[in-house]
Write a structure and sequence with these properties.
The protein is built from five helices and 20 strands. By secondary structure, it is of the alpha+beta class. Strands 1-15-20-17-10-13-12 form a seven-stranded antiparallel beta sheet. Strand 2 and strand 3 form a beta hairpin. The N terminus is likely disordered.
Length: 256
């Protein structure tokens, strides 16, 4: 029994060593020193945001799960063109704490997904590029921008699309995505190859390129499509193991 336990520990240790050597890390929530939010659940997660007097949280329509009675919600349609082009709703929900005592708002994605908080003040140039539709909510100073990818090859085959979502500021954003979320901080000039469907977000300063997924047979029969995405550092790259589109296909009923 002790020998079996020892071998098991060695296997686990080797597994961790391989994972560490790859440079990738499973995304783990890093809560701020000052209590501000909490994320609950293994999937279809709920983020509870704490609001002091007059503080606000912004979110996609349909994501509110619960809130304190003195938190008032309103709708804003400013910048609707940018939002629609970046895969979001044309309107934003604004929830404001109208009293001095602490208020709370619970938010959950509009599809079975995890909540991924990102403090933009820790990102290069406070600018994070995201796959369209990745944004769910934010608090603090955050602007949602659209970035036009003028290279048709990169736009069609790189995983970001022609119109990419840009989140700029010093606040905290909450992304939503299915599957296991992985992240890697690339060194200067370091490259990593990623399946185009798995791309979730990347920091400003990270270059995105594409490369063929193999020879003719590999591209036609390999199941990875014609191209893979190549990221070149420095900066943060985030990927997800299961996209919303893949999930919808997997659970869709078979045609009769």
């Amino acid at each position: 029994s002790s020998s079996h336990t020892k071998n098991k520990m060695e296997v686990n240790e080797q597994g961790l060593l391989v994972f560490k050597a790859s440079g990738w890390n499973k995304f783990e929530v890093q809560y701020p020193d000052e209590p501000k939010y909490s994320i609950t659940g293994a999937d279809s997660q709920v983020v509870t945001v704490q609001l002091a007097g007059s503080e606000q949280v912004y979110s996609e329509p349909g994501t509110m799960m619960y809130m304190s009675t003195y938190v008032k919600s309103d709708t804003e349609c400013g910048g609707c063109l940018n939002r629609c082009c970046s895969g979001e709703s044309c309107c934003t929900m604004i929830m404001t704490n109208t009293q001095e005592e602490l208020g709370f708002v619970g938010l959950t994605p509009n599809f079975p997904a995890k909540v991924i908080p990102v403090d933009l003040s820790t990102i290069n140039e406070n600018h994070l590029h995201c796959k369209a539709g990745a944004y769910m909510a934010h608090y603090g100073e955050v602007e949602i921008e659209t970035n036009l990818e003028c290279n048709p090859c990169k736009a069609c085959c790189g995983g970001g699309g022609f119109i990419q979502q840009g989140l700029v500021g010093t606040g905290t954003v909450f992304l939503n995505s299915t599957g296991t979320i992985m992240q890697k901080v690339l060194e200067e000039g370091e490259k990593i190859v990623v399946d185009t469907d798995c791309v979730l977000a990347w920091a400003e300063g990270v270059d995105m390129e594409i490369q063929s997924a193999g020879g003719c047979c590999g591209m036609a029969l390999g199941g990875e499509g014609l191209f893979n995405t190549v990221f070149k550092g420095p900066g943060l790259v985030m990927v997800s193991s299961m996209t919303k589109e893949k999930y919808q296909i997997a659970v869709a009923p078979e045609p009769k």
